[in-house]
Structure formats: structure tokens, C-alpha cells
Amino acid sequence: MSDLIKLNEFKFKYPIHMRWNDMDALGHVNNAIYVTYFEAARGPFMVSACSEWDWTKHMFLIAKIEVNLIQELTLKTPQPEVWVKTKEIGNKSFVLEYAIVSQKDGENVVHASGSTTQVMFDMKTRKTITIDDWIREGLSNHMG
């Protein structure tokens, strides 16, 4: 599965800080928690990709979330990370792609992949808006 994800296209990585309550009765990360890991990495990714990003001025809505579980993630998994890249950029929306990755014997192990679709949103008018050019440029620099 990691061949389909094209890990070499990801420039941004964010460490996962797993908590005991992330685990379910089977002893691995509960499937709903992967969305939380994506969210935790998305904020730092936006600041990294778009240096002028200001959460008090620029906002988006999450319109779609997809998670693909590949291999279990446990508390014993060494140094897992969320890798993030821009997959698509539209007029008002953009898609981010994620991979949750750890290392085993020097090889990348993909535990999950996924994507989120973000729609730019004006908090005053409560309407969707087009993506500013500077945001588009920053996101483009993180495309595969």
C-alpha cells in the first residue's frame, strides 16, 4: 500500500503523541483517533505551507474526511508520524492527503492513509470564498 501512497512526495512530517486513551479494547489505536491525528498535523502544516497563515483571519471548513486503515498502530509503535501533503487545489477548496508512518528495520511502515477536503470560509459573511493566491502558492509548494 505504501507504493500507492508515494511517500517520497511528502515534505511535511509531524510527530504523533499517542495517549493511553487512544487505544481500544484490541490494544491498538481506535479508528476514530486517526482523524484526530490528521487534525493535529493539519494546523502546523498550514502554518508551514503558508507562512502568513493566521487562524484568526483565515478559516476553512472540513467538508469531507476519508481514512484508510492499513496496519495497526499500538503504543509500542516507535515514533509514529503524520505525513501531510497537498493533493488538489480547486477554486474554493483544497484536499490534503495524510499518511501515518513509523519505521521498522529502516523501512517505512504505513499504518493509515487518508484525506480531508477543506473549503475556505468567511466567518463574517458565513459563506464560502475563493482561495487567496498566496494560500494557493503555499499549498502548491507542498504538492506531490
Walk me through this protein's architecture:
This protein is an alpha+beta fold and 144 residues long. 20% of the residues lie in helices and 38% in strands. It contains 3 helices and 6 strands. The chain has helices at residues 2-5, 33-49, 133-140; strands at 12-15, 59-69, 81-89, 93-104, 107-122, 127-128. Strands 1, 2, 3, 4, 5 and 6 form a 6-stranded antiparallel beta sheet that branches. Strand 4 and strand 5 (107-122) form a beta hairpin. The longest helix has 17 residues, at 33-49. The relative contact order is 0.24.
Mean pLDDT: 94
Strand content: 35-45%
Q: What's the helix count?
A: 3
Q: Structural class of the secondary structure composition?
A: alpha+beta
How many runs of DSSP E, i.e. beta strands?
Answer: 6
Give the C-alpha Rg.
Answer: 16 Å
**Termini gap:** 17 Å
Portion in helices: 10-25%
Unreliable parts? none
What sequence of helices (H) and strands (E) makes up the elements? HEHEEEEEH
Q: Which word captures the global form?
A: globular
* Biggest sheet overview: 6 strands, antiparallel
Kindly report the oligomeric state of this protein. Answer: single chain
